[in-house]
Specification:
Elements lengths: L1 H14 L2 E5 L8 E8 L10 E8 L10 E6 L7 H18 L6 E5 L4 H4 L2 E2 L2 E2 L19 H8 L8 H17 L6 H13 L4 E5 L16 H9 L4 E3 L1
Parallel strand pairs: 4-5, 4-8
Antiparallel strand pairs: 1-2, 2-3, 3-5, 6-7, 8-9
Helix pairs in contact: 1-5, 2-7, 4-5, 5-6
The structure holds zinc ion.
Zinc ion (ZN) binds next to loops.
Length: 237
């Protein structure tokens, strides 16, 4: 997985500009990186970017490394996920200081800068792209057939971990090759590329009907309320 991540980042640099502008918080064993990823220009003088908060496990945790990916406001008018992210960053900072980050955690609070900037006569349009009419949470790149074609002769019977790495590497490779597409699809391509090698993916949305499925009484009331309002975080395998 580490090899594929490195290769992915190298390739990412050739397509988009990746700037790591905050590299360390307190010492060499506690790492929180914030990456700024520029999106393709929406028009002359108009450019958005993604901020990717990345928490890395300390060297003292030597177990097999997993990755959790969390994003909010893909539907840009569903803002409780932003507040959840705000509180989550503070909790993760505390966990990092206490050396409790055991696996990689990636958090993108503003997953859809395009939708966050769409206003028409004072009304926020965060669910659909005004440029294409496409729902920001639909029409994701579907690489399944290409992935099958690429990996079918590379999988090793009985070696699950190696096969997972092969499939994830292939997914990233195929996603990165999609370049001649709309800005909205470029956004999905970038998010997909960051998330596709994660073991857990949480995509925070909200709705008027909710169920209290992820609140935790051990954390603050306001965070509980926010989790409650941000009801259907759903998990992709
Ligand atoms: Zn939604």
């Amino acid at each position: 997985m580490q090899y594929s991540c490195k290769l992915y980042l190298l390739r990412l640099k050739s397509n988009i500009i990746l700037i790591i502008f905050l590299s360390i918080i307190s010492s060499q064993i506690m790492s929180r990186y914030i990456e700024k990823i520029l999106l393709p220009q929406q028009g002359v003088g108009m450019q958005s970017y993604l901020l990717v908060h990345r928490y890395l496990p300390t060297q003292s945790h030597t177990e097999s490394k997993k990755k959790a990916y969390i994003q909010a406001t893909l539907h840009a008018d569903e803002v409780p996920g932003l507040l959840v992210s705000h509180h989550l960053i503070h909790l993760l900072d505390e966990a990092m200081k206490a050396n409790r980050i055991r696996h990689e955690i990636v958090l993108i609070p503003y997953a859809n800068p395009l939708g966050l900037s769409q206003f028409v006569l004072g009304s926020h349009i965060g669910r659909f792209s005004l440029a294409t009419g496409v729902n920001f949470n639909r029409d994701w790149p579907d690489k399944s057939k290409e992935i099958v074609r690429e990996v079918k002769d590379k999988l090793i019977l009985g070696d699950v971990q190696k096969n997972v790495e092969t499939i994830r590497y292939t997914m990233k490779d195929l996603i990165i090759k999609d370049t001649n597409i709309t800005v909205e699809k470029q956004l999905k391509r970038i998010l997909y590329g960051i998330a596709c090698d994660a073991d857990i993916v949480l995509d925070l949305h909200c709705d008027t009907g909710t169920y209290n499925n992820i609140s935790d009484p051990s954390i603050s009331t306001i965070t509980n309320i926010l989790f409650y309002r941000c009801c259907y975080a759903y998990v992709h395998p």
